[in-house]
Structure to design on (248 residues):
């Protein structure tokens, strides 16, 4: 079994008197896709924000590439080897798609940024969009732009929040194929969130289910389906979201 590239220990987060993350612990291994699942409000986004250094946990520890994310001296080095994509985060509307990718290429200190922008644009089929302002792009086109941005620095860890939710079936399947290929070629490790349970069954090596800020279940898809006596992952999701289990 490969060594973890990311580990979370006894993670807690409260906003005021509301505890949104409760003693969460997990590991992400090299070349693995770890699914982070749960209903709205389960704590998935808060965890992703903590992993990106955007939110400070109330307690607990996050180590990425063997370094503590809370150490300001290490944080920039860690984040330089990571990237993130979310359907729900918009890039600056006043920039063109090409300008936005160039900004991120320079922020990540990519060598030969123009060539890299060209390459990721080809990979995600957005070359015709590079001169268009982001405000003029459809939601699906913006999703592809966000995914291209996520690969601009050849990350070793990628956090993908609903990466295919606004893509048509053809583009979504091509995106999943590209992600699988990157894992093989570059030993990419991914934390993947989605409400598409069929997609999670296809993409993930292991799954963590969250509800009300704590982990309800973890394991491979087949292990979790068996544990909850479900027909498939969607059936398990519904049982957990509706609290129709003994795991509470």
């Amino acid at each position: 079994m490969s060594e973890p590239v990311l580990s979370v220990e006894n993670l807690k987060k409260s906003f005021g008197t509301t505890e949104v993350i409760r003693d969460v612990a997990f590991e992400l291994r090299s070349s693995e896709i770890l699914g982070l699942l749960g209903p709205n409000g389960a704590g998935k986004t808060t965890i992703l924000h903590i992993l990106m250094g955007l939110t400070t946990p109330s307690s607990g520890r996050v180590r990425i590439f063997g370094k503590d994310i809370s150490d300001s001296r290490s944080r920039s080095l860690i984040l330089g080897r990571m990237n993130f994509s979310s359907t729900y985060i918009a890039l600056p509307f006043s920039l063109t798609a090409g300008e936005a990718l160039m900004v991120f290429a320079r922020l990540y200190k990519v060598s030969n940024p123009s060539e890299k922008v060209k390459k990721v644009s080809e990979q995600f089929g957005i070359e015709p969009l590079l001169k268009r302002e982001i405000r003029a792009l459809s939601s699906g086109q913006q999703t592809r732009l966000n995914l291209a941005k996520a690969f601009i620095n050849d990350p070793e860890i990628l956090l993908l929040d609903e990466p295919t939710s606004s893509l048509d079936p053809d583009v979504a399947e091509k995106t999943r194929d590209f992600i699988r290929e990157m894992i093989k070629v570059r030993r990419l490790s991914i934390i993947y969130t989605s409400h598409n349970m069929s997609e999670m069954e296809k993409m993930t090596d292991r799954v963590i289910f969250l509800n009300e800020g704590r982990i309800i279940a973890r394991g491979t898809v087949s292990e979790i389906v068996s544990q909850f006596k479900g027909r498939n992952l969607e059936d398990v999701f519904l049982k957990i979201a509706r609290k129709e289990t003994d795991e509470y």
Summary: The chain has a mean pLDDT of 93. DSSP finds nine helices and ten strands in the chain.
